[in-house]
Structure prediction request, 230 residues.
Amino acid sequence: MSRLTVDIREKRLAGRLVLGAVAFTVEAHEVVALVGPSGCGKSTLLRLVAGLDRDLTGTVRWSGAAPRLGMVFQQPRLLPWRTVRQNLTIAGAGLEEGDRLLDRMGLADKADVWASQLSLGMARRLALARALAVDAQALLLDEPLASLDEGNQRLARVILREYWLRRPVPTLLVTHDLAEAVALAHRVLVLSPGPARLLFDHPVPDGARTDAALAARTVSALRELAAMPR
Ligand SMILES: Nc1ncnc2c1ncn2[C@@H]1O[C@H](COP(=O)(O)OP(=O)(O)OP(=O)(O)O)[C@@H](O)[C@H]1O
Prediction:
């Protein structure tokens, strides 16, 4: 399993500085949340890690061979002219695993519907199912629970935790929601307003995933840290 080392000194888009100094590692079995205000550069950072953009000052390295990635983009990026099931199989999912995930995501009755006919929340659930169905060696998830109602957010959290128990792959999870970060990640990286630099890298206590009071205390501590002048 790969370990990810990110050491970004600077990233520019159209000449404008979008990311400042951001350096961190993600261990082979670790889920790391990236949290920061809107527009600070989180998606840009994820694209650099995915190798979709290689134009940076700094380095992004995986130990060993580059892993097969399961990705959720900010937009669902489905193939609208294919059915829901085909969107999974074309991405490389086995039929059985694809159907199992559709069932878990509450999309079993949509398997033969055109992807273009899904609501945004359904499309986002399908995009998450696709990332989890492709036997990924690392996950890069950009706001995977955005546009889901509360029930589906809870369900998606459970599905993600089950996934990591079965397949503890290195994961970068972008979110603007500290509570979601604490609920899912082992560590939370907080970024400054853009151009983002890393403000701090904070471990989440093990119990926070099951103990709601501890989770709430961790979220408040992170919020206070993030608000501190520096
Ligand atoms: N192709 C581009 N050319 C120039 N600037 C860009 C381009 N794409 C994004 N930006 C700018 O880069 C900055 C970072 O964008 P990015 O999408 O990475 O932020 P983000 O933290 O993911 O935002 P959000 O949480 O709102 O999705 C923003 O100011 C955005 O306007």
Q: What stands out?
A: Helices lie at 42-50, 84-90, 95-104, 120-133, 150-166, 178-184, 212-227. The radius of gyration is 17 Å.
